[in-house]
Amino acid sequence: MADKMGAVLVVGGGISGVQTALDLAESGFKVYLVENKPSIGGVMSQLDKTFPTNDCSMCILSPKLVEASRHPMITLMTLTDVLSVDGEAPNFKVKVVHNPRYVDFDKCVGCGICAEKCPVKVPNEYDVGLMIRKAIYIPFAQAVPLKYSIDATKCLKLNKDRCGLCEKNCPAGAIKYDDKPVEEELDVGAIILAPGFNVFDAKLKKEYGYGIYQNVLTSLEFERFLSATGPYGGHVVRPSDQQTPKKVAWIQCVGSRDEKTGNTYCSSVCCMYAMKQAIIAGEHTAGLKPTIFFMDVRAFGKEFEDYKVRAQNEYGIEMHRAARVANIIEDPETKNLILRYSDPSTNEVSEEEFDMVVLSVGLQPPVGATSLSKIFNIDLNSYGFAGTSTYSPLSSSRDGIFVTGAFAAPKDIPTSVAEASGAAAKAGAYIADKRGVLEESTVQEIDVEGQEPRIGVLVCDCGINIAGTIDVPAVVEYSKSLKNVEYAEEGKYACSADCQERIKDLIKEHNLNRFVVASCTPRTHEPLFQSTIKEAGLNPYLFEMANIRDQCSWIHMNEPERATKKAKDLVRMAVAKSRLLEPLYESKLPVTHSAVVIGGGISGMTAALDIASQGFKVDIIERTGALGGNAANIHHEEDGKKISTFAKELADKVNADKNITVHLNTEVQDVGGFVGNFKIQTSQGEIETGSVVVAVGAEEYKPTEYLYGQNSNVVTQLELEAKMESGNVPAKRIAMIQCVGSRNTDAPYCSRVCCANAIKNAISLKKADPSKDIYVFHKDIRTYGFREDLYKEAGSLGVKFIRVPEDKPPVVSQDGSALTLTAFDTILGDDVTLHPDMIVLSTGIRPHADNEELAKMLKVPLSKDKYFLEAHMKLRPVDFATNGVYLAGLAHWPKFSDESMAQASGAAARAITIISKPELKSEGVIAAVNDDMCDGCAICEPVCEYKAITIVVDPKDAEKKKAVVNEGLCKGCGCCVAACPSGAMEQRGFKNQQIIAAIDAALEECD
Amino acid sequence: MTTSEMATTSSETFEPKIIAFCCNWCSYAGADLAGVSRLQMPTNFLVIRAMCSARVDPEHVLRAFSKGADGVLVLGCHPADCHYIGGNYRTRRRIALLKMLLEQYGLDPDRLHLEWVSASEGTRFQATIKDFTEKMKELGPSPLRGADKDPNRESAGY
Amino acid sequence: MAKVKIAQYWGAGCGGCDVALLDIDEKILGVAEMADIAFWPIAVDTKLKDVEAMPDKSITVTLYNGAIRNSENEHVAKLLRQKSLIMVSFGSCACFGGIPGLANVTNRKDLTDYVYGKTFSSVNPDNVRPQSHYQAPEGELELPVLYDTVLTLDDVVDVDYYMPGCPPTTELINLFLDVVEKHVKEGAELPPKGTVIASQKTLCDECKRKKDVTTIDGVHLPHEIDIDPEKCMLEQGVICLGPATRAGCGAKCIDANQPCRGCMGPTASVMDQGGSMLSALASIFRTADNETQLSEDEILKLMTQIKDPLGTFYAFTMPVSIIKRKVQEKNAGVKQ
Question: Which residues, including other chains, have CB under 8 Å from residue C58's CB and lie 6 or more apart?
């Protein structure tokens, strides 16, 4: 690797830090990923499921952690703290200290014998103290890196010089009691801070009795209750008596929207996670009746409102709205909990008894935020989170230092992931001239074609992990008896460095052309062995693994004979498959090193500028005659600047950027090609490009209700802003109606921005003329995050908020031009009638009607609400399943301009991971069509989720058709192969005959 | 084992042979986690790894039965969790149809079982293996045991 | 120059294959010119003992049609194999079991019990069953033994070539006879042993219908809808086995606006035609937007639109399918 390669320091190994590290690494930069804990993974690793898809959190996170730990461009530094930062971007000098692990990182194989023997029991932080770990431990089973560490505060040896059991028992000799802190200085061009958050300490809300009443839990604890790896294996039970609870209550806003605790902001995620927990708990436990006490239900994100409706209707979750729980009293006999709360429907204090209570604790700045701010010399905001601004949402106050994830504000996972990518785009701009390329291996590959298989087998002891249960020498002897096995031997640790050398020697010595290792799981170790045999000149795909540890010795510990027989079976299967293995090659595809951004609004311009800032050409295709999009018409201020002014400044920057070409009045007519090689046909000609960012925005709903268009005093918020801009709002009594064109049958979703925008306008009007009477008719006020302060400010300025039922919007009538508004006030429990001078409709956001056409051209899907649908709602928020196409802004979902910009930077970073590469490599394990067999029946085409298959005219016969797999798009799942009825489709590495060989071998009678 | 021996095998000593197809991302990881967590279970199954449960071709399942498997498990990611977006939906449809077919062939459709096991569900993997092994013991040897050595299928009987 | 000697035999089949051979029109004259008919029960009066008397390998080519259903089928197949240079598995029944192969959903006992006891027209007060041997006053009578399981020709003898079709088309027969004639007359090389005399691709290759999308919303029987003769059958929800079936038949059913039922069997790289088509069909059911939320029962309901998977996907190939025949659970009672 080149010494001059640009590097970035990423602080924090949660999902944000990991994503930003991966994007930088994939763009050709070196990354130092620093984490102060023994494993990366962050809070997401502790979660059971994620909303709104109820995805298994660990399942989707774990591959990313493994990828980060394996990436040759990422140096993972766990148990590491940053001491100081000197210099200026792009020449930071960062001093870090690697705290002692007391376990030799290189020697430890993660076998866990040390932890088995360790006598010291400590509550495990990962399980929020609900389970026990040892003083020598990994935080959780899927920890990355899978290396043990000693908790120096608890270890008997380190504290009292007693015990020493781990050292005595470690078969790898990895224990290092005399380990010392090591300092290191890193040269980096930019820094990204992703330290995450901490949850509110529920003990501070004394009235809820957390820490005193056994059956009052925090939501993070409950997350562990739900998890299959948690204290009760996923069963919901009461801590007091281990009985299954019937009635469980969630109390929202514990440590959020609460002046008493000092956290006035809304934590943005608790409404959704509470509903998720209630749904999952209900699924786990028959007869469980969940109740949630909300203030407002803040389901503002993509598909969140649907989730809420399902939670209520399908899962029967009772939702108490506008209800603050005053306190909890425990029945000392039953340990049941009596909640006292104000019931908005009766205006009286009610009491209800529950078996168990979950406190939805809010998000706080991470512990150590202050010291971080000092070390990195960055500002924190008044809440203690990192200070950022609307127009540079990812930048800290110091040049070259960026923030992502919940460190800047409470936020959900997809927003954090999009921002993480965005921060990568920003950081990369500082070192764009120092992009590096990984060097290819130069070992000449041995041609094995036509050779009879000569298979080598290495059976691993894994210390005593395997050899303690399985008779390894017997397995070795058995291996030797199998057809085509030339050589077999036992290895103490197959993954150790000396074993890699041994494997290489064996291949040469015995002229082997296939290799089988029987040890642990291919999920973690296959890449290691593949690179080993590659170094010996064998194609890496001539390797096969038998999992005789995780899936044999560990799960059959008490049945050594049967486990030994099973290990033989597994080796026989691996050998049978390996006979039929073929060399595979990742084909290389050329890349056009430029991007196209469709849409010239704030999102499109931001994405274009970020891509251009790393030295790539960008074409913006804008169908109107000007840049700016919706922002050009938004005149309210954010951070002291009108959004419309900012949009104009941004357009000036775009026009001045020599890397960006703007095509105004231009429509996309067709899209051909694939990742790295798109051809965009526009009304002004063809553009070749490597990747595409979709930032086509959305539009304001044009109302037909509430006399809009019939009475000139009924206006939309944007029209109000135009009037305010010209100082022309004489009306004294103003009624604002929320959710106009949102959360109704036409558009069942929440448009996210209308509450805050309406309140912002209400505040401006009220400040300019305090005598104005302003009423806001709403279903919920969804001023999430720091925008909650606007809600509070409006209230204190005297803006009146009237909550109406979800299914009963206000009614507006006119007599001449005089307006009358009638609405049911849920607090009063009665109709109120008002005669406003002006009615302002908070109109929702709607997707463009022609999204469908563009989606078809790009082969990307739309959501049921007709917004563009990303590849994965949680962890791939700006990607499409179609490789090389990315998504940002309102085209994805309604959002604020700062959110759009952060997401646009994210889309830019993802596009850069493609166009920065000299060439793209396909996966090795992909589908391949046998042209002699394929008849173009097209069964496979719709089956492919990645649109990698196209049916084309057979070049040899214009009358016939055939399927073609795009190697750049195929991900190698093999779904099409199983669907193919003619046998023309095969999956390389998992061919039918290879799988059949394994099946037959599995069922062969032996012994 | 010959067929006549099989017929006399009582359910206590009968050890079913089970093939478990696991997708790489969820269920294979769940099986690994069961190992990491030292969750003990019967030895009667052998795992065959596929990248996605959707790679499991009905022909693979049929082949396993014809070679004498007493039961076949297909394990994939939970709906909406599929690493390959929607592969598991195809699997689910194929397995539903395949079970109908097996029943027509006279096999108890319970000999084929689809289960969702996530990467964090080591316990679910264990429970699935335990329950399925137990179920196969109840069902007894597959009537197709040994059938591949008997082209006329006379022994398979009907 | 030696004349080619041809034999044709009718095993468990409908006789259509014999007719197909007659159906080659004027070419039959060429056959007569080129070949002597050594044995062809429906056309020529040759007795088995005449065949037995022939020297081994003296018949150039035997076209054996029909499945192996009973001991006589097997006996004749073995005899003809012994006497023939080239053994051709002729027609779908010989190749895959064909329609008679569907008898593998039952067995000898159930079948005879039904036929001789349970049909509406059965009058059999003594509950008589056919016996393979019967001592009549005139002497011992013998009937072939009906097998439990329908077998294919290559289950009992070594087969050189396969010519699938129900029946094989005139084009394929002519093609093959030309090859044999060239071999006999000019010494041209024969195709490699095991060759299937048909296309290597599937029927979709020969099908002229237009195809835009290949997802289907539901399944219809051919008589339930007006099938658009221009559009792909599957696209219209009609189960067509074309994608899983070897081409070479000339797409005759498709031209008659009827879906393919799979008589040509699978391609060389498919092990199980039915399993393959089952997988394909299940794969292309239109994914509902809310498939995530569908329960297993709802999925099952979706799939039960295909009422008879075995009969649908294995109409011609059950005896060569991976499972081959219906079996009986020994502990069938356990489930209840």
Answer: C5, C38, C83
Residue C76: give its domain's CATH number. Answer: 3.40.50.700
State the complex-level ipTM. 0.93
The predicted-structure confidence for C90-125, as pLDDT tens digits, reads as follows 999 999 999 999 999 998 999 999 999 999 998 999
CA distance A456 to A486: 6
Block residue for tokens 């339930």: C224
CB contact under 8 Å between B55 and A975, yes or no, is: yes
Task: Give the closest residue to A539 by CA, choosing from A919, A924, A922.
Answer: A924
Is residue C50 domain-resident? yes
> Does any domain span residue C326?
no
Q: Which residues of C touch B92 (CB under 8 A)?
A: 296, 299
Q: How close, in Å, is residue A879 to chain B by CA atoms?
A: 13
Q: Is A655 exposed, middle or buried (0-12, 13-18, 19+ CB in 10 A)?
A: exposed
Whole-model pTM: value is 0.81
The span from the first CA to the last CA of chain C, in angstroms, equals 71
Q: How many domains does the structure of chain C reveal?
A: 3
Residue range C230-272, pLDDT digits in tens? 999 999 999 999 999 999 999 999 999 999 999 999 999 899 9
Beta strands in chain B (DSSP E): 18-23, 45-50, 71-76, 112-116
Cβ neighbours of A932 in C, within 8 Å: 200-201
The chains in contact with chain B, meaning 3 or more Cβ pairs closer than 8 Å, are: A, C
| Residues C233 and C259 occupy one common structural domain | yes
* Closest residue in C to B66 (Cα–Cα): C323
Decide if A141 and B48 are in contact by the 8 Å CB cutoff: no
Q: Does residue C167 share a domain with residue C84?
A: yes
| Min Cα separation A282/chain C (Å) | 16
The shortest CB-CB distance from C243 to any of A53, A932, A937 is to: A937
The nearest alpha carbon in chain C to B80 belongs to: C292
Q: What is the DSSP letter of C16?
A: H
Q: Which residue has the tokens 């994210």?
A: A906
Backbone φ, ψ for residue A819 (5° rounding): -100, 140
Residue where the block lists tokens 């008849």: A935
Helix (H) or strand (E) holding A673: strand A668-674
Indicate whether C242 and C136 sit together in one domain. no
Asked if residue C143 belongs to a domain, the reply is: yes
Of C201, C280, C292, the CB nearest to A979: C280
**C137: in domain:** yes
Rounded to an integer, what distance in angstroms lies between the CA atom of residue A941 and that of residue A984? 13
* Residue A226, C-beta contacts closer than 8 angstroms, at least 6 positions apart: A48, A49, A234, A236, A277, A280, A281, A284
Shared domain check, C213 and C67 = no
Best of A146, A307, A551 to disrupt the B interface (most B CBs within 10 Å) is A551
Chain A CB within 8 Å of residue B80 CB: yes
Q: How far apart are CA A706 and CA A684, in angstroms?
A: 42
In terms of residue numbers, what domain contains C39? 4-100+149-186
Q: Are residues C115 and C255 in the same domain?
A: no
Please write the tens of the pLDDT for every residue from C198-242: 999 999 999 999 887 778 888 999 999 999 999 999 999 999 999
Ordered by where they begin, the domains of chain B are 16-139 (3.40.50)
Q: Token pair of C190, please?
A: 């024969």
How close A873 gets to chain C, by Cα (Å)? 14
Residue C3 CB neighbour total at 10 angstroms: 11
Tell me the residues of A at the C interface, defined by beta carbons under 8 Å apart.
53, 864, 930, 932-939, 941-943, 960, 975, 978-984, 992, 996
State how far the Cα of A5 lies from the Cα of A21, in Å rounded to an integer. 15
Task: Residue B102: name the closest of B131, B135, B144, B141 by CA.
Answer: B144
- Give B-chain residues touching A56 at CB under 8 angstroms: 26, 77-78, 81, 118-121
Q: How far, in Å, CA of B23 to CA of B85, rounded?
A: 13
